[in-house]
């Protein structure tokens, strides 16, 4: 059976499989025929004009299809998705097929002009934009209704006919990438450009941010170490450390915006216009006219969404919060119990026991976060039968973020500002931070890696061949990859960093060592995340992005909150209290004054530091200038034609 | 002599005088010839291609020239300055001559397509862009050196040869505008679109803001009245008033952004690209390449400017501040003296005497502000021989703003937060507010109006004719107008509103009646400013603008500061203190908590309310979309030509 494939390989060598489409086993023939015809059909007929080949497995089943596209088709698709590439004059421009010759490294026979990730992104975009025309239902499945303009792929997924669509790994490229990324022991930066070529901008930008953030934490960590080593307890040193931290965190967030602009300008995504894209094809809604592009596409009912949020999501979030606070109270009881135990029978064992409640609590928090997440996903998909992608929608993401924040920090806030127990705060903070880091690394990367490895071995045994990775046939590769887990985007990874930033900055003056642990964790995080991307998950589709989006705001908000918490903490410290022996009032007023000054400095700094470096600003302005000039030019051409047509009429008018 | 003009009037009726150029008396003939030749000369020869006519006065002097332009020249100029006009399909587009037919109300014989203000703006732009070519000096004045690329008009102004350039009033239009603006008693909005047509966008937007701000203050004033009438002193009512004020001020500032976007979209200035304009032609600097447009133009030395700021301006500002604080101390001495006097011999007279120090102080503040301003102007122009325009440069404006702020509010802050004297604060606030308002209205509008009227009468007497305004000949009109004062932009008007906003919001919980006075003042302010614009000053050149610029930020900052001051004031009130009889600490903590909550609400509101209404957002996105599509189109055309030229070479390449 494998011959049928190698036959294709030899005789149609221009077909390069890029994306795998897995249908349910036993899908009706007419459905398959209709679907593949739509994929192959001409654009003019409402097709995607791509190439499709069946993959015949050893069992003779025909439920996996490989999708590719001709070089020309991919170039036209690059224009459709609005890809931005570098021109011969070093400027970045939106790619168009007609202007292809002006782009760097373009040649009609250079099939590497578009990276594989870009090709796969284009194919995904084209597949998802296959829309129902006059079909009333999916052929062969009368119960699966179709409405004009709705995404076919989405409907196939929700009705369970389509199992998944995923891009293929390029084993050669992946091996190279693995080697330069984490394959050798080295000191230096990650190969961000290579990561971007292989996994797309969103993931590369995450790794860029992770790396930047780690470097940015190093000064905090370095300054934090002596506080631990010499057990400094002077208030002035703590004030200095906290002040440095607060200003530093503002600077690093502002500088990141600049670095992000530089990097995404180089990648072309800073110039990509996302607002003109058609709405997510996986989208429920009736057809309407997009007010911007004037194209017909599904529009969005905002009121319906609002109602769902307020009637379903809000009560659910409140319930979860209540539960989370209840667990926190149990934790405090446990903590008290451990303390009593330690006081009664003091020993090495009992002092270790002091950490047990925090560790248990940290584990419970992680579990609760996951339960909340699955429940939220269930609620989102509730009434929609099947979940297309397990990633949360935007609103749920906000709720999830807030829930995580409260879940992780509620106990710390309670200890700090209700119990006023700095010793317990330090101990709890340290235990929570370290436990959650270890748990995360384990749950996110190492466990799936181990599972994946075991599965691979079993697969290979079943295929009764003991080849190495690179010797696998395409069939074997696809069979391995389709069983791999799906990577649901960078949300969880950013969330982890966000919570870590909270641990480091919110109580930085109580536990300066937090930054050290954060740096250590992030160094291993880079490697475990890289491992996760390369070995554990299916290759994700590339997603162009120009910035880290809402996370920038989230980190900035956290840094504002941390100004407030740190000022209060310092104000509460006995050393500072000793400075104001007579009047608590003066103390509080001083603290409030310092806090306002710090906040003012923060805002002025954020205002003064430009978000984009000057040369990027100039390049963007230049492009805008050109595009305005071009608009004038086009109106000019338009006018010529208008004038030519009108001249007779207007001539007549004038004579009247 | 007047016949020579009427001769022109009859035989060259297409020449419409728009701008007046006044040269110094006794300017050498060759200079005049050279300058008028440059104005009339073809664009290709480095001229402005405008029309010039000498105005021969009754004394036979020839030092005033009228500048006009042909209809076609103005349309081409409109394209150069990037004017945005409404198209036939109701969208706003950048005007180009080639696409002129697509614009609403365009007809080749409709000379009202461009408003007079727009025509004058175009002529001003063209005159200021007359640049020296190979001339080494101004002909006839060997000491007035010229450098290639430097503005000729600027050089003529600095060397005193050119006295002034100003646009002519249109007496018919002005009469109409006056009538609909303030000529009849009416309740309603100002004719903003007419103001914009006559005076340009910057001035119209100021009046729009003044009107909006007055309306926005009405709710505050209405709520404030009962506090005064019933002498409410309950803390909860004050808290309510202050809270309402703080949130209201956030709302009005956010809503203004939206209204501003709507208005300037209609005027076309929201779409006008200011960053691509050539630098202010009055600009010192060497020639360089503009990185955005790629055109050769004078560039700017930033370091030189920085040094000047730090070495000259900063010490000067510090000195002024010191002086201002010194005066404040004298005021407090006076205040104390008045209080002592009142206590010693209590009478009606002595209680009136209590207000005298505040009134004197208010007058002194106004005088100091003006002295500071003239000194700052002197410093700016120092080493530059002659001041071209008396308006301050940007940096000095910032300093001036801060100086005004401190000058006006330092004493109030001192009374509130050092002396803790709420009664004095209220009295001082009221006196300062009312005195400064009266002084401003008098000094800004009424005094100049009276002077202007007197001058006009004398002029008319001298011309020994007692005609009404509309019967004046052009010569007489110009002779009247050239003696009028020059309007130096909206800075002072905005500053007045800004300080008023400070009086209203910073201490709103102490003196709720401030808003009432502000509303009353603003209603008369609209009329006196309108009078000022129409009767007192020369017509100013129109200046396109899309928003109120830095004032938005200034008002927002003021509203943040007012949250802090009001929370402190409420916290200090005896009523609130009585609520926390046992612990001052609890009081302060509560106040701090409330303050943080209010600030958080403010920022969330500012974040949640979109800056532009949805339909404007869509229109802007649409335009951007079109301009990107146009860019693609242009690259396409470019490529065609490239491909045609390259086909032979590339064909050869392929064969190899």
UniProtKB/TrEMBL annotation, chains A, B:
It comes from the Eukaryota. It comes from Strix occidentalis caurina. This is Anoctamin. The keyword Endoplasmic reticulum does not apply. The keyword Membrane applies. Its main location: membrane. It holds the Pfam family Anoctamin. It is found in: Membrane. The lineage of its organism: Eukaryota, Metazoa, Chordata, Craniata, Vertebrata. Belongs to the anoctamin family. One of its GO terms (molecular function) is chloride channel activity.
